[in-house]
# Entry
Amino acid sequence: MSDIGDLSGGGKGGGDSSSSSSLFSSPLALGAGGIGALGLGALIAQGPGQLPSQFGQATQSSPWEIATGQQTIGQGQQLVGQGTQALADAEAGRLTPEQQAQLGQYTSGLTNQSRQMFYSMGQDPDKSTGFITQTANIDAQVNAMAQQEIQSTIQLGLGEISGGNSLMSTGQSEISAATQALLAAGQAQLQLDTSYSQNLTSAFGAIGTMFGVAAKAAPLALA
# Structure
């Protein structure tokens, strides 16, 4: 029966000492022929790795860009709402408080000028039938100004709707771009994780294979 000295090459089977030594070497020291040059420990310590810097920047800035896009969309919706209300007011012939104040001042100015003109001609405007005609002329001028105000309201409403739609489109684009950047970063991270998992699986598979070979060869080495 072989003793311990036989395993070191001093007895029967000593010529196979190099093969027995390699069979019992640690699977963690397989090097480039097995797990890889870094070894399993280095592979685990290294982890899946870091994403390129552009992905990190996108991940950091994307939430802010999404929030900005949502704010821009809100501003656009507000403008569209104002424009829609302006068109509704114009269609109904309603004037804004500012327009009503301007129209009132315009009416008072025309009326005062006409009364002064009648007084200068020695006529009492309150008793002159001619002032009735003048009042009708004033009403026509006031109505014409009111129509101009309504037209300006329509133009304002259309401009607000157009500007609001543009803002909403810009906001949607900002959100879409930021979302795509986040998705790209997520996919890149998934690829890193998948590659790392595959490397670990291969490494542990190599270790299992080496242990299996060593277990089968050990009786032969001791024979």
